[in-house]
Design brief:
By secondary structure, the chain is mostly helical. It contains 15 helices and no strands. The longest helix is centred in the first third of the chain and has 37 residues. The termini are close together. The N terminus is likely disordered. Keywords: Membrane, Transmembrane, Transmembrane helix, Transport.
Length: 404
C-alpha cells in the first residue's frame, strides 16, 4: 500500500536524503562493530582467556535474545515519539558496552557487556532504521531502505578485514577498544541527523487481517510470515557466524577466511542493488519465495563445496547476494502486506522472534557441527531450515485486503 504524498510524516526529498545518508553511515558502523567483529575475534578471545567456546558464543546469542525482547518496546516508542532519542541512547549504550567488553576481567563481566550490546542492537540496528525510513520515506521508502541496506551490507566487507588487521598487533581487547572509539561517532550523528518532526501515532483502530478478521499480529498470514523469516534467518546468521570457523577447519588462515566473509558483504550489496528490479518484475509472493529459495541453495553450496579458495569466495558472494535481498524482503514484509500504519509496532512484533532466531543460530551452528562431525554437515541442516521457510512463503499473504 503506497503512502499518500500528503501524509504529514513524509519528509521533503532533500531532508529524506540527509536522513538516509546518516543512517547509511551509522548502520555500517553499528553492524560492523556489534556483529561482524565477533566471529573474527572469537578464536583469539577463547585462546587468550581460556573460556569455553560454547559459553562465549552463548554470550553473543544472549545479546540477540535481549535485542528481540527489547525490540517490541523500541518499535512502540518509535511509533509514538520517533527514532531520534532511542537511536541516540542506543548508540551511547553500545559504546559503553563495547568498551566494557574490552576491559572485561572475567566471563560474568563479558556476558554482562553482551547483554548491554543486546539492548543497544534493538535501538540502533535495522528495525529502528527501517521504521524511520518507512514513516518518513513515503513513496520513496524502498529507495531509501535499499540505500541504507546497500551501505550496511558492506559492514562485513569493511569490518571483518579491519578487525583481522587490528587483531594481529593489538590483540582482541585493544581491538574492541579501537572499535568502541569508532562507534562513538554514531552518537552525534543520530542526535543531529534524526531531528525531524514526528507526529506520533495516528489514532485509528488497530488494523486487521480482514474486514472482520483478527488483528494482523494474530492472523495466519502474519504467523506464517514470522515462521518463514525466522527459519530463513536461522540459516543465514548461523552461516555467517560459523563461516569463518568452517573455513579454518578447511585449512584457511584467519585473514583468508575473513576475506571470504567480506566477499559475502559485496554480494549483499549486489543483492540489494538488484532488489528494486526484482520488486518491479514480481509479485510479493513470488519474490519472497525466490529469495528464500536462494538462501537455501547457497547455504547448501557452502556445505558441499570444499574449495579451492577462489570457488569458496564465489559461493560466499552468491550467499551474500541472497542474504542482501532477504534483508529487503524482511524490511518491506509488513508494508507490502498491511501498509505503514503502526509499522514500528508490527515490525517490532515480527522482529522479536526473528531476533530469537538470530540469537540461537550461532549456538545452533556450533552444536550441529559438534554433533554431526563437522561444519559441512551443519550447513546441510541449515539449508534444510531454509527449504522449510521456502515452503511456508505462499502462506504469508493476507487473504483479504486491509482497511486503510
Amino acid at each position: 500500500m503506497a503512502e499518500l504524498a500528503t501524509d504529514e510524516r513524509v519528509l521533503p526529498t532533500p531532508a529524506l536524503r540527509r536522513v538516509t545518508a546518516v543512517l547509511c553511515a551509522t548502520e555500517i558502523v553499528s553492524w560492523g562493530v556489534l556483529y561482524y567483529a565477533f566471529p573474527v575475534v572469537l578464536a583469539d578471545l577463547v585462546a587468550d582467556t581460556g573460556w569455553p567456546m560454547g559459553a562465549v558464543v552463548a554470550a553473543f546469542s544472549l545479546s540477540q535474545v535481549v535485542a528481540g525482547v527489547t525490540g517490541v518496546g523500541v518499535g512502540r516508542w518509535i511509533d509514538a515519539h520517533g527514532p531520534r532519542g532511542v537511536m541516540t541512547a542506543g548508540s551511547g549504550l553500545a559504546v559503553v558496552a563495547v568498551a566494557g567488553m574490552a576491559a572485561t576481567q572475567n566471563l560474568a563481566w563479558f556476558v554482562a557487556a553482551w547483554l548491554m550490546v543486546g539492548v543497544a542492537c534493538a535501538a540502533t540496528l535495522y528495525a529502528p532504521a527501517f521504521a524511520a525510513l518507512t514513516h518518513w520515506g513515503g513513496a520513496d521508502r524502498v529507495k531509501a531502505l535499499t540505500a541504507v541496506t546497500l551501505v550496511a551490507g558492506l559492514a562485513s566487507t569493511v569490518f571483518a578485514p579491519l578487525t583481522a588487521v587490528l587483531l594481529g598487533p593489538l590483540g582482541w581487547r585493544d581491538t574492541y577498544g579501537v572499535l568502541a572509539a569508532i562507534l562513538l561517532i554514531t552518537v552525534p550523528m543520530h542526535w543531529w541527523g534524526l531531528r525531524h518532526p514526528w507526529p506520533g501515532p495516528h489514532h485509528r483502530a488497530e488494523p486487521t487481517a480482514g474486514l472482520d478478521g483478527p488483528p494482523v499480529w494474530r492472523s495466519g498470514a502474519f504467523l506464517a510470515l514470522t515462521a518463514a523469516i525466522c527459519l530463513a534467518a536461522a540459516a543465514i546468521y548461523a552461516g555467517v557466524i560459523n563461516l569463518v570457523p568452517m573455513l579454518l577447519e578447511r585449512g584457511l588462515s584467519t585473514e583468508s577466511a575473513a576475506v571470504v566473509l567480506g566477499v559475502g558483504g559485496v554480494g549483499q550489496v549486489c543483492g540489494r542493488l538488484g532488489y528494486r528490479r526484482l520488486e518491479a518484475a514480481t509479485s510479493v509472493r513470488t519474490r519472497t519465495t525466490l529469495v528464500v529459495a536462494a538462501v537455501a541453495a547457497t547455504t547448501l553450496l557452502l556445505a558441499v563445496v570444499p574449495g579451492p579458495y577462489a570457488l569458496l569466495a564465489v559461493v560466499s558472494f552468491l550467499a551474500g547476494t541472497a542474504r542482501g535481498a532477504c534483508t529487503l524482503i524482511q524490511a518491506t514484509a509488513v508494508t507490502d502486506r498491511w501498509g505503514v500504519h503502526r509499522y514500528g509496532t508490527l515490525n517490532g512484533l515480527l522482529s522479536a522472534p526473528l531476533m530469537f532466531a538470530v540469537a540461537l543460530s550461532p549456538w545452533l551452528g556450533t552444536v550441529l557441527a559438534e554433533n554431526l562431525g563437522g561444519y559441512p554437515a551443519a550447513f546441510g541442516v541449515l539449508a534444510g531450515l531454509a527449504v522449510a521457510a521456502t515452503l511456508l512463503t505462499p502462506l504469508t499473504m493476507p487473504r483479504r485486503p486491509v482497511l486503510p
